[in-house]
Design a protein that fits this description.
mainly alpha; 50% helix
Amino acid sequence: MLTAPDVELAVFIPSEAMFSSLGTNETTLLELLRGLSLSDSLFWSARVNSPVAEAGEMSPREIETVPF
């Protein structure tokens, strides 16, 4: 029986590929966050930052599966 090798694969998709009308700069980020309340801004910023901050301690598979 053949088995798949134990290989991890990470794929990066730039935001322009998914959202071509959005810029990738601080101005665009601020415009997007402006519509949120302070609590929502802090909550979502922390959620997005969490896997990035822990990236050194997590495998690519673990980072992919962090629940939002």
